[in-house]
Amino acid sequence: MTGPEQRDADPRADDPRDPAPDERARPHRAGPPHAAAGRGRLPGRPDQGPAARGQAGRPGAGDRRSGMDRGGMNRAGQGRDARSGRGPRPGRPPSDPARQAAYEAVAAVHRDDAYANLVLPEILREMRLHGRDAAFATELTYGTLRALGTLDLVVAAAAGRDVARIDPPARDALRLGAYQLLFTRVPSHAAVNQTVDLVRSVAPGATGFANAVMREISESDLDTWLGRLAPDAAQDPVGNLSVLHHHPRWIVRAFADVLGNDLEETARLLIEDNQPPVVHLCARPGRADAVDLADEVGGLPGAFSPYAVYLNGGAPGELAAIVDGRAHVQDEGSQLVAAALLAAPVEGSDARWLDLCAGPGGKAGLLGAVAAQRGAELVAVEVAEHRARLVERATAGMPVRVLTTDGRDAGRDPLLPAGSFDRVLVDAPCTGLGSLRRRPEARWRRQPGDLPPLTRLQRDLLAAALRAVRPGGVVAYVTCSPHMVETQVSVTEGARRSGVEADFVDARTLLPAGMPKLGPGPTVQLWPHRHGTDAMFLAVLRRAE
Ligand SMILES: C[S@@+](CC[C@H](N)C(=O)[O-])C[C@H]1O[C@@H](n2cnc3c(N)ncnc32)[C@H](O)[C@@H]1O
């Protein structure tokens, strides 16, 4: 992806809400966003086997580069040369290239803390996989990682032991095999044989074990396994949803809390979270018009944001409009919350805007484009040096000044003086639970223990924003998480601790007319299953005169 929203190894491990670089647009669904098919089989493809597909493109042992060459960095920012996992052994019969690629990606995610959306494209490139093979490898990787918790229950039940007690290479191969058996149309015999071949090449001692486990899994279909393994819906509804829809229990609980404990709606959200999102473009104001851009790229104008275009397919990074800076890849929800900051009425001066958490620059790209139209200047603050450079790239040619500094110092830092900005955006670092569609492994990596440090940061950043905004000016507080403690609690606490008097603006009035299901206000929570966007939260505060 060439757009500014590309995520890299993330020092803050915050909300990776942006479209994944390898993400391909999926066909747009007509009509309002709706719950997709339940827990049935996902689209797979008939297995052709390595013989039918030929061996072209399979790298020999000599072609294999070290893990460091692909996938680059892990979450800790370490190179992958320290990887300890086993690749296929020379001379052993490897499985087919698509499955091999998926195995390598899943293993890198678990072994090296890699991000699937970064590591998989590298592996596909290295293995020279394209077309159907690349699509199959992507489906296997993303599907396996999304459904991991449920797959692990199945593998453990079939193996008669917890997955923690299975050798990691065999465990990852079995997870991929179970996914093929239960979630795709790959014929059972092919899923079993290919998985056993894969285990033979990565964990030869476990070949017989893998064969037995795969055969046991293949004895029952997904519904039967779920019926056996999911807690009873009447006794433990959250646990039941957690297994049925492959989300950790604490995340299901958090979503249900925000959705008023409506478990049917919670299920619709979980189902939507398991779908790859449609890729959205933002037609940059003054540089492109959304309707014209939709024509140009063969997409559809967005349902809500005046800047949004839904892509129908293809690689967004290759589009001329992206390459020449007329558009960038950005979820429609992100566009809406950035535009809401600009829609809030302010009296008097309106030329100094601040983006307090700007990297990698998606919203700064939109705010900067409007600043150019309105004769304003945007100061974009980002604490991480390399992300600040991404903001510069995303806002090239716009009236944007990028500062690499800590946003918590706003209102004290002479470069960000108190009471000097007319509009301030706090797009706070968060758990990213609102964009689980985009990062298949994220739901299993995130832990409740991530919340306290993030919420402290959120409150401090909001307090700094309230110090930096002038009386009568507005602050938009945004997260890509619907978790109550990151939204309502952080806003209330941040505002209280700032010592600055401020009032809520009804954020619903700042969104396009006719948007459905925005709740009672004054804050707004967007949802994938209601609006087709990431689950963005928006609160708008006006500093008292
Ligand atoms: C949710 S992301 C912002 C996304 C961005 N607004 C966009 O639309 O592309 C949060 C950003 O805040 C940055 N950040 C974290 N702590 C910060 C701090 N104390 N001051 C400034 N930026 C910070 C992170 O590095 C990260 O780039």
Characterization of this structure:
The protein is of the alpha/beta class and 545 residues long. Among the domains are: 49-56 and 65-222, NusB-like (N-utilizing Substance Protein B Homolog, Chain A); 334-543, Rossmann fold (3-Layer(aba) Sandwich), CATH 3.40.50. The protein is 41% helix and 10% strand. It contains 21 helices and twelve strands. Strands 5, 6, 7, 8, 9, 10, 11 and 12 form an eight-stranded mixed beta sheet that branches. The chain has a four-stranded antiparallel beta sheet with strand order 2-3-1-4, sandwiched between helices. Strand 5, helix 16 and strand 6 form a beta-alpha-beta unit. The radius of gyration is 24 Å and the shape is globular. 55% of the residues are buried. The model is unreliable at 1-93 (pLDDT under 50). Residues 5, 12, 14-15, 334, 357-363, 381-384, 387, 406-408, 427, 429, 457 line the site of S-adenosylmethionine (SAM). It comes from Mangrovihabitans endophyticus. S-adenosyl-L-methionine binds at residues 357-363, 382, 406, 427. InterPro entries: MeTrfase_RsmB-F_NOP2_cat (IPR049560), MeTrfase_RsmB-F_NOP2_dom (IPR001678), NusB-like_sf (IPR035926), NusB_RsmB_TIM44 (IPR006027), RCMT (IPR023267), RsmB/NOL1/NOP2-like_CS (IPR018314), SAM-dependent_MTases_sf (IPR029063).
